[in-house]
């Protein structure tokens, strides 16, 4: 198939076959064809990094430093406790190299700028929770979260940015690991989006980075993992005979973990704060992870500063309220 007319007929035939079909019944793209298809060479990847750095106006000297680190990559193997003669790598940086994360951030800047272009488009509709801040995406080392109003035209615009990014970098979303999550969208729209974009449908609530995400108020079952983790941390030390000072240090560590992570994200209900504090208080005075009423000093007193006669433990409720006030 080499003539323009035959190619046109094949394209028309393919798109006609899509009408009235669901994704599962459509012909699948050959993975071997994709695998053996065009890919960016190492030099092309470096060229893309340079283009982005130039666009971001990095100094010329800095660009040279980055290219030197990428091009002149050598390794040495320890044999009989002595390093061997360094040898050059065949494909430059490997995953895990300290600078690889920086290069990833530079390349992802290309996609970020494309998505931020929606801020200039007055016709584009944000996700209703993201419109005030103009948020279209959150990019992490391994994940990319995209947000849009649940209408096909706006989701299509996001997909077009991904396609443009793929053509420039050959980095593509893995459809087997990518999901679309809906909130307040009809079943008809859900089916249409799944047929058009091919991503699997995710169901809320869902866990992300060990934190439950939901469009509704979190239920008791969704808060249960926080209590279970607290009890598990304490249970791992109940068999060990710790002094009161050791128990206080363990409880402080447990409370700090909650304060540093969960309290930054949610307004924790008072009911669950009291349960967590009850487990910690009981462990301090009894040495077991079973809630008891045995307490020589009130928990409020233990949370006061040492200068006031307390043990300087974290008051979860006050910390949670302070963080919530800061974030809002």
From TrEMBL:
InterPro entries: DNA/RNA_pol_sf, RT_dom. Residues 1-201 form the Reverse transcriptase domain. PANTHER family: REVERSE TRANSCRIPTASE ZINC-BINDING DOMAIN-CONTAINING PROTEIN, REVERSE TRANSCRIPTASE ZINC-BINDING DOMAIN-CONTAINING PROTEIN-RELATED-RELATED. This is Reverse transcriptase domain-containing protein. It comes from Nicotiana tabacum. The gene is LOC107774968.
């Amino acid at each position: 198939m080499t003539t323009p007319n035959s190619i046109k007929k094949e394209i028309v035939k393919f798109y006609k076959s899509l009408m009235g079909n669901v994704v599962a019944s459509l012909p699948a793209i050959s993975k071997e064809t994709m695998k053996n298809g065009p890919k960016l060479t190492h030099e092309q990847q470096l060229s893309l990094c340079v283009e982005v750095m130039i666009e971001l106006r990095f100094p010329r000297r800095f660009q040279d430093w980055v290219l030197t680190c990428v091009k002149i990559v050598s390794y040495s193997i320890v044999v009989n406790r002595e390093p061997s003669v360094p040898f050059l790598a065949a494909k430059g940086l490997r995953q895990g190299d300290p600078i690889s994360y920086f290069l990833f951030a530079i390349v992802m800047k290309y996609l970020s700028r494309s998505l931020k272009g929606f801020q200039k488009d007055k016709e584009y509709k944000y996700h209703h929770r993201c419109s005030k801040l103009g948020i279209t995406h959150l990019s992490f080392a391994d994940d990319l979260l995209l947000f849009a109003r649940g209408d096909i035209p706006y989701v299509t615009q996001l997909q077009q940015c991904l396609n443009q990014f793929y053509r420039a970098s050959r980095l593509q979303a893995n459809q087997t690991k990518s999901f679309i999550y809906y909130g307040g969208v009809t079943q008809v729209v859900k089916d249409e989006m799944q047929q058009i974009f091919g991503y699997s449908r995710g169901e809320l609530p869902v866990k992300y980075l060990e934190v439950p995400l939901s469009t509704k108020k979190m239920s008791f079952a969704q808060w249960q993992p926080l209590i279970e983790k607290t009890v598990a941390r304490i249970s791992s030390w109940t068999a060990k005979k710790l002094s009161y000072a050791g128990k206080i240090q363990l409880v402080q560590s447990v409370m700090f973990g909650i304060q540093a992570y969960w309290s930054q994200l949610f307004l924790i209900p008072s009911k669950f704060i009291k349960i967590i504090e009850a487990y910690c208080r009981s462990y301090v005075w009894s040495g077991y992870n079973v809630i008891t009423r045995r307490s020589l000093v009130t928990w409020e007193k233990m949370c006061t500063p040492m200068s006031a006669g307390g043990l300087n433990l974290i008051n979860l409720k006050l910390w949670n309220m302070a963080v919530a006030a800061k974030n809002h």
